[in-house]
Structures are given as structure tokens and as C-alpha cells.
Specification:
By secondary structure, this protein is mostly helical. It is 44% helix and 0% strand. It has one domain: Non-ribosomal Peptide Synthetase Peptidyl Carrier Protein, Chain A. It has three helices and no strands.
């Protein structure tokens, strides 16, 4: 998936007004809460067939961290 498409889809899923970049700190987003975690887990499963356990989110600060957990090989410039 193109990185730009991923960022756009993630922004839509999170219903976030702020434009997301790989450097965006997820925990600083106004809409970031436990429902957001579930939304991200479902989004990743649906788009990448990868399950992220909630315990991994303690290490995920930025969108880039999330992309690394998904597997950077799944993204193209």
C-alpha cells in the first residue's frame, strides 16, 4: 500500500481532522482513546491481514512505529 494512501485511510478511520504523517504522535491526537486502539487493530487486520495485540501499543508512539509493527515492506513511497 502506498504510504500516502495508508495515512489518508488511517486518518479517515480515526475521524481525525489533523493530517497524519509518519511523524505524527498517535497518543497526542485529540481523538486517541481505547476505541481508537480497537479501530487501528481492525483497520490493520482488514488491510494487512495482521493482528496487532493491544500490548504492542505501549511501544507504538508514532504512525511510523505503527508502520514498523505492520511491516515496512508492506508500504511503498
Amino acid at each position: 500500500m502506498k504510504t500516502s494512501v495508508f495515512l489518508e485511510k488511517l486518518q479517515e478511520e480515526l475521524e481525525e481532522d489533523e493530517t497524519l504523517t509518519p511523524e505524527t504522535n498517535l497518543k497526542s491526537l485529540e481523538s486517541y482513546d481505547s476505541i481508537s486502539l480497537l479501530t487501528i487493530i481492525a483497520f490493520v487486520d482488514e488491510n494487512f491481514s495482521k493482528i496487532i495485540e493491544t500490548k504492542h501499543f505501549k511501544d507504538i508512539e508514532t504512525v511510523s512505529d505503527l508502520m514498523n509493527v505492520i511491516g515496512i515492506e508492506n508500504f511503498e513511497a
